[in-house]
């Protein structure tokens, strides 16, 4: 089991996945909340059956998978549906992530969660690392990556906690705004050494 569990988070388009992938190159175990969430609603899972019962069969694709886009639009527009879905999935996801953290073999491990702070997961980890970029950068990257309009990207940003609030919870910050991949790797190498020191200490 890892001696140190670090929560890794950042707003949409901040580069969390890139940062996690670089840490993984050092042999660090990564527990990804998005991946766990996807596995929780795979075809045949109890959670997917409950979702189909609640929202209707047209939320399931022909191949048996969840129609994520349709569900996202539904819960984004309906607070009661969002609350119901969160009550179903969050305990499942949290339990699975806790189990995966306990099985991690690297000296320290990461729990990557976009809503780490919003969902209170930051209270279950030892340290919090925030990948930080300016809101303008987030919007540009989200538009380019996900084919969203600037207006859609802005709405997603507004649904997340503010940059200041996220940074207020950070023990460590990676600036991923105007830096090259080499500059990003330099920041990560320094943090990797720092985390190893914490584990040894």
TrEMBL record:
Q: Where does ATP bind?
A: 13-18
Pfam families annotated for this entry? CoaE (PF01121)
What pathway is it annotated to? Cofactor biosynthesis; coenzyme A biosynthesis; CoA from (R)-pantothenate: step 5/5
Q: Where in the cell is it found?
A: Cytoplasm
Q: Per the UniProt record, which EC number(s) apply here?
A: 2.7.1.24
State if Transcription regulation is listed as a keyword.
Answer: no
UniProt keyword Kinase present: yes
Q: Which reaction does it catalyse?
A: 3'-dephospho-CoA + ATP = ADP + CoA + H(+)
- Return one GO MF term: dephospho-CoA kinase activity
Q: Which PROSITE patterns match?
A: DPCK
Assigned keywords, A-Z: ATP-binding, Coenzyme A biosynthesis, Cytoplasm, Kinase, Nucleotide-binding, Transferase
Membership in a protein family: Belongs to the CoaE family.
Biological role: Catalyzes the phosphorylation of the 3'-hydroxyl group of dephosphocoenzyme A to form coenzyme A.
Specify the protein name: Dephospho-CoA kinase
Q: Which organism is it from?
A: Thalassotalea psychrophila
């Amino acid at each position: 089991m890892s001696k140190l569990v670090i929560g890794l988070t950042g707003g949409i388009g901040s580069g969390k996945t890139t940062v996690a992938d670089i840490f993984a190159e050092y042999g660090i175990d990564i527990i990804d909340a998005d991946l766990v969430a996807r596995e929780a609603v795979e075809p045949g899972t109890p959670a997917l059956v409950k979702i189909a019962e609640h929202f209707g069969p047209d939320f399931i694709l022909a191949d048996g998978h969840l129609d994520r886009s349709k569900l996202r639009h539904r819960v984004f527009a309906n607070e009661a549906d969002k609350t119901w879905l969160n009550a179903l999935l969050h305990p499942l996801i949290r339990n699975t992530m806790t189990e995966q953290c306990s099985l991690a073999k690297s000296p320290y491990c990461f729990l990557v969660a976009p809503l780490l702070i919003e969902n209170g997961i930051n209270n279950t980890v030892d340290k919090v690392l925030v990948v930080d970029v300016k809101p303008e950068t987030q919007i540009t990257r989200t538009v380019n990556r996900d084919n969203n309009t600037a207006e859609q990207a802005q709405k997603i940003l507004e649904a997340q906690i503010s940059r200041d609030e996220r940074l207020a919870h950070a023990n460590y910050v990676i600036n991923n705004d105007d830096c090259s991949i080499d500059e990003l790797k330099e920041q990560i190498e320094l943090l990797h050494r720092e985390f190893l020191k914490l584990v040894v200490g």
